[in-house]
Fold:
Amino acid sequence: MNGHEEDEVVYEIGVVVPKSNVTEGKESRDCVEILEAEFRKVGLIVDRVSGVSDEFIKVAAPLETLGRAAAEMQMRKPTCIGMDLQFEWEEVNAFVKQPDGSLFSWCERFQCYQHLLYGIVNKSDSGIVLNFDGKEFPWEVGQSLLKKLECEGIIKQVFPLHDETKRRKLLRSWALNWWDLTDQPIDEIYSYYGTKVAIYFAFLGKYTRWMFFPAAFGLILQFVDFGSLQLLVLPVFFISIILWAVLFFQFWKRKNYALLARWHINYTIGASQGQKLLGMECGSVQSPVELMKKMGMDKTQEKQLYQRYEWLGYLMRFRNDAIIILSIICLQLPFELAYAHLYEVIGSDLLKFGLTGIYLFVIQHFTRFGGKISVKLIKYENNENTEYRADSLVYKVFGLYFMQSYIGIFYHALLHRNFTTLRQVLMQRLLISEVLENLLENSLPYLKYSYKKYRTIRNKKKHDKGSKSEKIHVTSRVEKEYLKPAYSASIGDEVEDGLFDDFLELALQFGMIMMFACAFPLAFAFSAVNNIMEIRTDALKLLSMLKRPVPRAATSIGAWINIFQFLIVMSICTNSALLVWLYDEEGKWKVEPGLAGILIMEHVLLLIKFGFSRLVPEEPAWVRAKRVNSATQAQNVCSKQLLRSISGGEKTFYGQDKTE
Structure:
């Protein structure tokens, strides 16, 4: 390979191994050398880089190597006729290309890399003794070399590497591009990060763009004095934002379908490719397939086993949900009510502001602890795959955060009925929580990186103590990426990545501004400005401050869509209660024409909410037409091939008869 070709090599995977302290020994047995040689045998391009305290093996793969791996994995890809067929390298022209012109998406390439790296096994007739740093250990027949080295602590980490050319291009066109407030290069984000991250940013951009309407309406209500018409304008604003929210999510679903069609992703993908059944992953619950293989059951026993497995899963989920609800009632609810009561009796605004800051800091740690408990609980649920497992986690953790975020506000709104205090609480919550979240999101990764870098250099100096050495610097790009923190969820990365926290932040914001819209219309303007900043800060965080995330397959925003729909229904109820409170200033709760009108409006809005879901079709007409045409074309091709095979079979059959 000449120098020009080497410049074009894009290393996409990094493997971290510690530096060996032994300079003499049987180099032929050195496990890192063997690992490099095995990488090259399977067609990978390898480059070994020495860092301050570790060594890094950068790995790239030619297209043919990836294609062979995809064929071995029996990967299914969309074809030109619209069907997803098993990939064959010899028929590569039959498969559609990605938006950037490449054959494989980043998610597919990562799966191929995993297959190639972890598929290296000992194919000899006997075990091989490996050596590293004076320590010897066996490599058994049929055992994965990479997994063995991970178990021995020799391989510290395998992680995706940033493509520096694409990263810099995205920095210019996305993270640092402030001219386009909500427009983003979604196709480029999809090509670089995968479906799940791209769908999140597409949702965030569309959500922010649609928020300009209620933000403008809220600004008018805040700064224009309508006098005696104020009680008439607020119901109009209430109706408008409910219709806005319902229409937004219907048009988001259309956008979601359009993106999947543009990226040639099948809607019925279900669980992400390569993910296993939960029972197989955790080892806590065996799946019916495993049990049937072990026990050799007949059809009747198979049916009974599936029924038992299904109902056991329901009972386990019910048990876990009950544990979460009881913990909220017994532990979190008293704490929330105590904070709300203290806020009500404290007279100083400065003390109230400080109390809110301390409360938000403490409750974040409490809720994260509850989230980690939820992660442990769902390991014992019979979820079919990691997608259902992640959805179960979303519902449980959101229940904790829902109580943490809103119970104090409900206390001020419905019990004390102090409109001024309610607005003050909402303003402080929005400002403190959003500013605090943005500061933590962008400062913590940098602080973690700086600390790991300092610790690495300090350990190197301790190791080289007594020897003359120049000032130590971390110079290699791969080592800098290794020192960066991973894009992980605050409750753990067993099920979800960092998108869990980003979606949670959006959902809590949506609930705050929707459920108390009549009390604080200006909240929409605050949120619109925050979300414009959020797009840029999240992009900068992913591109500069964190490791490149492991790609995850997805076809939608998952369980979060149900969370948002639940919040719309809640906002209809809470805003109706706020309007009743405004009309019923004396607190007598008399059913007068105004109050009756609000109650009727609540029921009408609930009907409209569910009616509009049917009025606006979720799938655009062009996407539906494309899908139908592809299905028809695929059916015609399959029919012709089936007829040819039947016709050929009949000729053979009749020919055999004549011979006989």
In short: The first strand starts at residue 13 and ends at 18. The radius of gyration is 29 Å.
